[in-house]
Amino acid sequence: MKPSRYSARIEEIRDLAPNIRELTLSLVDPDHRTFHFLPGQSIAVEIEPTHAQVSSVRYYSLASPPSHATRLTLLLSLADQGDGATYLFEQSEGDMVQFHGPHGTLHLRATEQKNILFVATGTGIAPFLSMLSAILETTPAYVIRLIWGLRSERDVYYQEELQALADTNPCFSFVTTLSRAQSTWVGETGRVTDVVARLPSVEDLAVYVCGHRTMVQDVTRIVRAKGHCPIYHEQFSKSQKHGNDGV
Ligand SMILES: Cc1cc2nc3c(=O)[nH]c(=O)nc-3n(C[C@H](O)[C@H](O)[C@H](O)COP(=O)(O)OP(=O)(O)OC[C@H]3O[C@@H](n4cnc5c(N)ncnc54)[C@H](O)[C@@H]3O)c2cc1C
Ligand SMILES: NC(=O)c1ccc[n+]([C@@H]2O[C@H](COP(=O)([O-])OP(=O)(O)OC[C@H]3O[C@@H](n4cnc5c(N)ncnc54)[C@H](OP(=O)(O)O)[C@@H]3O)[C@@H](O)[C@H]2O)c1
């Protein structure tokens, strides 16, 4: 089935760190006032032709849970300074964007494993925020651990929100690890792969991985070497790789 096309107004913009921005979208089209998706799925945002040479789309994971069907949160990185990110960073509150969806193969599964491990770098945390919120809205049947990799202190965000979730939900814990920490950081240092390598076992564990492409490969290899368990990550289609996928 072809995904539907939606119009949304940018309700709120929050700068979380240099080159990292949170966008809250509000659905305005009377025919499409709610958006249904699975926790972890993404949308394809249309990029204006003035930025891209031809009209194109870029995919962004929803960081909000499906229960927020009229207000959607995106987490954007400007790191690559390509057409898509530049276009979205130029938008202001009140501006309109068009998107279609839902898309994506990375979504929460009803696994028989009782332990969930989320491994993310950078904005790869977005789908896990959606999944985490969705799980914690129910009586959680899982023990959830998040390992999140960022570069240095200036890149750190969402720590208070994650700590508040950990404080109020004993089933959830997280570690943020910095690969290029300066002297002020008192937390974990190194890459997420270093933390994953120290896992004692993958028994009764389902692993979800999202972020830097080589990190996904490396984490998969490390987990596989420890034993058999399900590992979920985005399966990229040809159109997603090239950023072109017309409505
Ligand atoms: C399912 C999915 C979910 C995603 N979710 C998120 C998310 O939640 N948040 C997020 O920030 N991103 C997410 N992404 C990535 C996002 O879709 C974009 O790829 C990202 O924003 C970069 O797009 P861009 O247009 O800015 O850069 P692009 O135009 O794709 O360019 C990327 C880099 O390549 C360079 N480049 C481009 N074309 C050429 C060329 N011809 N020759 C040499 N260099 C070139 C650019 O200068 C830039 O440095 C997701 C991707 C997928 C597939
Ligand atoms: N659904 C999806 O598929 C989805 C959703 C959201 C985001 N994304 C993707 O996630 C990425 C986010 O980019 P970002 O700029 O925010 O951050 P990023 O590049 O993902 O994260 C930077 C961190 O990743 C580390 N890293 C790089 N390669 C690694 C490896 N092989 N093993 C372990 N750690 C590694 C870096 O360590 P060093 O400092 O040592 O290099 C640094 O700490 C983008 O590529 C985006 O497309 C995908």
Concise account of the structure shown:
This protein has 247 residues and is α/β, with parallel strands linked by helices. It has helices spanning 83-89, 126-136, 159-168, 192-197, 213-226, 238-242, and strands at 4-17, 20-27, 42-47, 56-61, 71-77, 96-103, 115-121, 143-150, 172-178, 188-189, 205-210, 231-232.
- Strand order of the main beta sheet, please? 4-3-6-1-2-5
User: What is the straight-line distance between the termini?
Assistant: 12 Å
Can you tell me the residue ranges where pLDDT is under 50 for at least 5 consecutive residues? 242-247
Instruction: Please give the domain count.
Output: 2
Which term fits the overall shape?
A: globular
What is the third-level CATH name, the topology of the largest domain? Rossmann fold
The CATH superfamily label of the largest domain reads Nucleotide-binding domain of ferredoxin-NADP reductase (FNR) module
CATH class term of the largest domain? Alpha Beta
From the helix content, strand content and strand pairing, which structural class follows?
alpha/beta
Q: How many strands appear in the DSSP assignment?
A: 12
Structure description:
The protein is α/β, with parallel strands linked by helices and 247 residues long. It has 2 domains: 4-104, Translation factors (Elongation Factor Tu (Ef-tu), domain 3); 115-232, Nucleotide-binding domain of ferredoxin-NADP reductase (FNR) module (Rossmann fold), CATH 3.40.50. Helix content is 21%, strand content 33%. The strands form 2 sheets. A 6-stranded antiparallel sheet has the order 4-3-6-1-2-5, with helices on one face. The longest helix has 14 residues, at 213-226. The radius of gyration is 18 Å and the shape is globular. The model is unreliable at 242-247 (pLDDT under 50). The structure holds flavin-adenine dinucleotide and NADP nicotinamide-adenine-dinucleotide phosphate (NAP). NADP nicotinamide-adenine-dinucleotide phosphate binds at residues 42, 61, 77, 79, 104, 106, 121-124, 126-127, 149-151, 179-180, 191-193, 210-212, 214-215, 218, 234.
